[in-house]
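Thread: Modeling a multi-component assembly for a lab meeting

Hi all, long-time lurker, first post. My supervisor asked me to bring a structural picture of a complex we are working on to next week's group meeting, and I have zero experience with this. I have the sequence lines for every component (662 residues in total). Could someone generate the structure of the whole assembly? Inputs are pasted exactly as I received them:
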Amino acid sequence: MKQHPILSALVNAIKISGVDKNKVCVASDIFYSPQEIEPLGFDFFQTPRGRPIPFGTGLKLGNPELKVVALTGDLSTLGGNHLVHAGRRNMELVTVCINNFVYPLEPGKESAKYMFSTYSNFERPFNIPHLGRSCGAVFVARWTALHTKELSTSVAKALNKPGFSVIEVISPGGNYFPGIDSLDEESNLIKYWYEHSEIKNGEDTMNLEIESGKEIIVGEFIERERPTFIDSYNARLSEIMGDKFVPYGGKSY
Amino acid sequence: MKANPKDVRTGVFYIDGDVAAAEGALAAGCKFLGGYPITPSTEAAEAFARRAPQVGAMFIQMEDELGSIATVMGASLSGQKAMTITSGPGFSLMMETIGFGAMLEIPFVIINIQRSGPSTGLPTRTGQADMMQARWGSHGEYEVITLSPDSPQESFDFTIKAFNLAEKYRAPVMLMSDECVGHMTEKVEIPEADKIDLEPRRLYKGPKDKYIPFKPDKDLVPPMVKAGEGYRLYLSPLSHDQRGHPLLSQKSTTRRIVDKIRLNADDIIETKEDGLDDAEVVVVSYGITSRVAYRAIEQARKSGIKVGIFRLITVWPFPDKRITELAKRVKGFVVPEINYGQIVFEVERCVHGNANVVLVPHGGGWVHNPDDILGAIKQIMKAKKRYEGIFEYKTELEKLIFGSGVQKK
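Re: Modeling a multi-component assembly
Sure thing. I ran the full set together rather than chain by chain. Output:
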């Protein structure tokens, strides 16, 4: 079976980061088959469309010991607001935004690959790293799906970093629309993006717009410290309530 | 299992239905509320938020109802008893994820303090028009359990019951309260913790490698595990087999999701009957409307009409059998509800043409005038023939404006 580059990177990341594999929960609105997931060793939840971030928030708050990864699409119509607020709260989640340009503009090529846009799409895609940074994410990176080694390192860093992190992965939309476009195989497209990317770690996120005909800038852009949601909650309430406060530990009955 | 004394605020209080529901949730061991404030349910979320840090529970105000219901799903899978509180438009927003919860059999509770609709409607006033939405709101086929309290005391009691049912049947349970009960302030007695029985989560106890996520027990409900315990869960809301793997057939999923409620309905259904032994007319009601109906029944009894009340505490699943049974020996049923006819259709279905069914509709905003319910009772007593379908009772005022009562097909 074909290896899914992003899932492989995720598994490697768990290995590198040293977190307990049993404690990793992946919430995704993207379908992966059980044959792909079950050998990987973590818990997997396919959420309602567009809700991996709040679903992951629930998992994390239900049991703060969990390490939660939210796999989302490129913040298309469903669920974009959740990323904004999870970033604001600094909820401890690793958000991997798999950008297949549903909000398109495929650099250098006619974007004729996507479901509702047989005749290419003229809309502008999100600058996801910049969005992540503005919302308050503590770790922001972008890679293409073929940068598996770099992607693993970034996800591993994010797993060990308390707070909200956003990692954008530029990847073709799986095997759902093969052969529609001029690049007839998705591997060609992956390769095309990989070859037309430029690593610039620490680049100002303002400059990360993906534009037609220009190189895609990839790398790790933001790494900073902010108190996480649960830490702020515990700190604030113990300040106000004093002894009466029972810190939230997520202990279930 | 008994309630934890730390969670229960034992005593006698003068509180409203919203606050009582929040206390009920805490007493039931609910440790997570993901919510978004919406009138008239805000007081319940506020009360929970005030008490949560005292008992090690968590309230999070999410960005919207779509998010809040999704957090509830996550928290419940992590092993917490979790709920959300909402009303009107918020309830509508949650629908997709309610179906998701039903499909993955996640135990959770929704407190819906109903307001008048549609759309923004009358946000600060009462209504009972979400009853069908509660059952059929999400796409696809599933079953839910709903409870309708008519007082703050019942808001407390039924919230605990709701959590117990959710854990027992792994199904969405909704407390379908309304603005009147939510904002009604009355005496509420919260008992000692050792007097509150709780249903523990049905946790899987066998060997780890033998766990099959959707393999049901005898009562059709499968045991659960918590996320992050090394079971390698694969939970997808696609139609699935017992392992949770996608399956191009509904046989093994929705059939059981529906049956686990339908076949256990006798255990779930709770109703309250009063004066049905000699009754010629039965008032079928739920929620705040049943309290209004009592006044009409008193008056009718005074004037010599034998009236009884049949109160639905669980509206869903619906007590079909009992109504069919009653229909064989009474003249008719009066169904007052704060909508233009929802549960009355269920009553008519169960009556099988054996008795008259009169609807006392109400557009929402206020409760019924007891005189209208009394008028409907008298209508049944003087009816000489069997109505075809449901007879919609018109108030004196309506008759004046629109002419006399018309039959509804």
